[in-house]
Amino acid sequence: MKQEMLINVSQPEECRIAIMEDGVLEELYVERTSQDNLVGNIYKGRIVNIEPSIQAAFVDFGVGRNGFLHISDVEPQYYRQGGLDPDKAFEAGEAASRGADIEETDADGRPKTATRRKPRLGDRPRVKPPIQDVLRRGDEVLVQVIKEGFGTKGPTLSTYISIPGRYLVLMPPLGRVGVSKKIDDEHERRLLRDIMLELRPPKGVGFVVRTAGTERTKSEMARDMAYLLRLWKSIVRRMRKYSAPIDIYQESDMIIRTIRDMFTEDVGRILIDEPAAYERAREFLELVMPKYVSRLQLYEGKEPLFHRYGLEEEISRIHQRKVPLKGGGSIVIDTTEALVAIDVNSGSFRTEKSAEENAYQMNLIAAKEIARQLRLRDLGGVIVNDFIDMRREKYRRGVEKALHDAMKRDRARTKILRTSPFGLIEMTRQRIRPSLRKSIFRDCPTCSGTGIVKTAESMAIEVMRTLQLSATRDDIARLNVTVHDEVATWINNRKRREIAQFEDATHVQLHVTGKESASPEHLLIEAWDSSGRTVRFP
Fold first, then answer.
1. What angle do CA 479, 480, 484 make, to 5 degrees?
2. How many independent structural domains does the chain possess?
């Protein structure tokens, strides 16, 4: 499996990173300087409002919009002290680390539920106290942005701080060390546990070994731990020095972030098309992964990097509603505010086997492409997949397994349900930031994002219906109607008789004006009385 990471920053306003696998685009990340990129940043904020009805607090953390902090994201140390105490930043972890053993954690570094173990300080209790008993207006809290704001909603915050390194994630004040659940090899897990015990991390902080830590040496892990500890100490110093709201720590730019999180030994080459970005990446690799510096290359070709690898055409297809599949089938992706609906069509796909086998083979191809499109488009929330109907239970389970396997490489958390009686597979995918489509496009000002507008006939009927209101008014002598050219033509030609009857019956002078630059649904009615004064109508 040959992988390449292509980084395009030739335009200073936008950074694009593509990960290709055997010549196929598998992952795409786009970030613009004009957009807020707050996920991962740490702030010292102040509680400005408590909402007991939704068990949440709103936090001013200095970015212009208040953040949303739910009780489930409030760390237990706040239950004891109410608000942030910088001098106690390490205490919960220190108490937890006394006699602590190695504990498994999930992909985010949060401890998994353990059996036959007494609760310890720093654990998330099963029953959360009411948020009004934990926090008060004016309290200071150390928060991290875990989800960007959407529309009128502010960013989602958490007091469970995590700072990623290359091989480890610092989790103050967890006070223990853990291993990512994505590392499923028991022998490897034991080796990593032994290494972490030998490194003897200081009391008061916790660490989680990332999947990138697999097969790493003790010295590599020690170097990463030292870097994270230096970073945490600087965060604590800044936290003590400044009052809220203030930014405490900013996540690295997308190039460093992606190399840190996505680079593996399978990536044979990293190409960057801008010298300054290349130097930043080189400095990072020399610091964190010096033996892989040779895989970083500066692209100096005359043809733009993404054009050279045929990615521009591929990226343009990402935004299309219909995605063709190998063999003649297709999937259709429709996005609404609440969910994503994906329909699988067989099209001209045929094999020499039975109809049931045809449907099964088509669904297997579709499952892999659905997972790829979800990653590329960064779609999140509730997703409903309508696969081609299959009667045999064996085939249904096979499609479910194919979708599960295809989603394994996705960094976002997902949950996939069993096939419903209607043949649908429902799933959820973690939504961290707006989708790629929302980042690049805006709703059409003409149709407001619906994709449809009223016909000229419909608008003409609406105009005539509105004009009938003037028959009940005695203060109107003249009306001027401004509509789109096509609507004006329809009214002046097909409604000429009705207009003449209207003027005779109401003694109102009516003039219909067409405006080419107006939207198809534009309607402006101006009214005057017999003295030429403007009258409000309708």
1. 145
2. 4
